[in-house]
Structures
1.
Amino acid sequence: MLFLIRHATAEKMADSGRDFDRKLSEKGRKQAKELNQLLSDELPENTRYFCSSARRTRETISLAKLSNEITYLDSLYLADKSSILSFLNELNATHPICLIGHNEGISELASYLSGQEIELRTAKFIALRFPFENSSYWSQDSAQVEFQGRPEVD
């Protein structure tokens, strides 16, 4: 099982001027907190969490409080579909994975794996189920969409 989450809504500009440093907006902080309500019962206990090391993704997972054990990776920052899929395949994982990242990479990955056109807007999540026990076999059109959603906040 693969859970993909796009970071919550971020501010347009960071004080530093670097995209990597953009923090969540007020709406984004509300979205991230709502993710806990929407996903906490859906994520199995043995889920492993991987998150881009950008500020907005780190804040999203922190406020969502989905896990205390998270691996932060610079390589997931603005990663493209192929890079993310290679990372997941190389994990050889037999447990569920939750990945918090950025567009366009995660939307393209969800579309590629499911064979459907999927757009992950900010704070949107999708759960994909595979007929394989090992992530090394995840490939084009091999997943079924189990569920998806997005916190609706003002």
2.
Amino acid sequence: MRPYYRSILGSQFSHGGFTLIELIIVIAIVAVLAAIAIPAFSRYQATSKQAEAKVSLGAIFTAAVAYEVESQNPSSYAPTTVNEVRWLPVGGTRYSFWYAAGVDAIGNSSTVAPFTGSSTATAPCNVTVAPTASGFAVAATSTGFTAGASGNIDGDSTCDQWFINDHRSISNPINDAFQ
């Protein structure tokens, strides 16, 4: 007895397997899915890497507020050295984290320095330079502060930059995840 498909399709299709057209269609479908999925996955990875900056800046905020509360009269967010803020990054970091220290005669910070343990990568983007962006700069005074983070999350020459201030307002003026 002949199989059912042979009786319907005829004897020329009795060898089985795929035709060249079917194979090309499958390859085209896989290529379209990859073209959609790979960039979305890359953006997802970059966004997840930015969590390091957000979490660490939140911890710096907490440490800076604690420093301000514990500092001698008059209370100030501007320590003599960055180490007085008592925050250190944990593990290997993609970002360098910056704070201002070295109070001048009128109570403003005079030196912007990285926290010990921050990234020291210089290529492809140099994170050893304090982050600055239009309207943002790392600073500390007796009444407030802005801390910063600079890192490379996708291997290009653009540094991802984040800032947090004494009002716990976090900003990402240079977003390397979507460049």
3.
Amino acid sequence: MNPLNLNDITDDGVIVWQRPLWLGRPPGVVGQLLDELQRRRIWLKVYHDRIRLRPSPRLPADLRERLRDHKADIICLLAPAPRSEEIRLCVQWLRRFGVPTRTLRPEHSSYALKHFVEQWSDQYVTNGAFIAAALIEGYQAKADFDGSLNAVFNLSIRKWESAKEQPGVVANPLRF
């Protein structure tokens, strides 16, 4: 698969090849699960890493279990896409401090890495923006563990670790 580039992402952060939700329910188990919640008049509020149900219902155990099993798929489908400014910040951080390695490096997940970008830029960045940026830059990615929304990459951050010791590198915002 070819890496993405910033031209594949619209100004509001939606990846061009991503299927918009308004084109219809996704096929399979996730679509059936969302249809069942709609029939029960239960509405989902999706945050970056969790799902809230409104009104807060007492769900049957099997439905609760299916929600838990497909949480990551539902969040990926319904969560807001990362904004292009966040992705550009992450791309710039990766180009400046990231070094590709031959193997995946599990010591830092995307969630930890996004905090390094925030520390460097003094701006908020989502986990999804960092993952998108790493894929754009051609890094390999794998889920941190089954069902995780975090990823690990073939990425060394030695340049970041030595650079953050220098004055002016951390909390030196990069403005667009």
4.
Amino acid sequence: MKLLYLHSVPFNTEKANLIQVFSMCRSFQKLGIDTVLAVPETDDSINDINLSNKIIKKFGCHNSFSIITYPKKKLLNRLQHSLSCYWGIKNILKTVKADICFTRIPFFLELALKAEIPTIFESHNNKLHNTNILLEKLWKYRLIKNSSSNFLVMFITISNALAKYWIQKGVHKSKVISLHDGFDLETYKKSIPTPKARTILNLDPNKKIVVYTGSLYKNRGIENIIELAKKFTDVEFIVIGGPQDKKIYYENIINFENIENVKFTGRIDHNDVPTYLFAADVLLMIWTNKVPTINYCSPLKMFEYMASGKLIVGHGFPTIKEVLSNGENALLANPNSFEDLESKLRFALTMHYPNPISDKAKNLAISKYSWDNRAKQIYHKLLSIG
């Protein structure tokens, strides 16, 4: 079986969705599926050794599957416009003799269906266009219409809530399968003892350390971390993520307020994240209601947090509670209560390792949420469809 994965994000970006796509392609290849990933061209040739090194640095491994590129034409001075990929994708669909196509992009789905290639579509949001209401309605109408095609063999959603949303909108439930995101089992099997991880990162071996990984955008609630740092002055808070202008913004705040127990690392390679997780006492998982995808999301970091075997303190949004349960495998606070978040963190900081809460989270991650397991479920579903 040959699988063609069509994606719209080049390798020289920092978007988290590239991690998910790369990981799934690796897992498909492990199953013996001949996997080809198509991404837009970058300034580097995909065969250039420098780009190969970038892939290793970013993901911590070689790509075991094939990677091909397509040109992205400028239209109305916007490189990100879906139509800019039209001819490149059309050509790939003709030249790569795929048995199955896989994509997260509604426009690519449409092209694959027109080429009469059996296709899997994966939805990560209920929004298809965030800035234009008319385009949002148009793409939603077209996606639902395309979902009735006999060539659309599977409609994957990343949460049960998102599955219910699309079924209510008209996608036939027989095609819908809900699969949360995951983590790389190989990476987290190689667990690093906390003292060693702290030595690698040059962190204080005796302090309590709380780690947050993720974006620093305004709707993520980073101010809550700063407020927690004021409450827990003997705890070191490490905040990993970008973009750079937001890092500078929050550093200016802590400098102005003379807060010395928060460190903003900025963006780091995804391959370096596990060491920070292994070095932590507690992992923070926070958002706000203003995150556009909060009711349907399945954050990658949740599964990496779980797999690290460290205590998770986070906000109990609905799709988070599809995976985690407060008091059983995480400590989940009311998203609208800073006091509850503070209380949960205070309790977590009194706990020692090993403990049943973090152990249950790790065991659940390993048994159910690896990328390899996710790929197997998709493959078995394909086989059952015939």
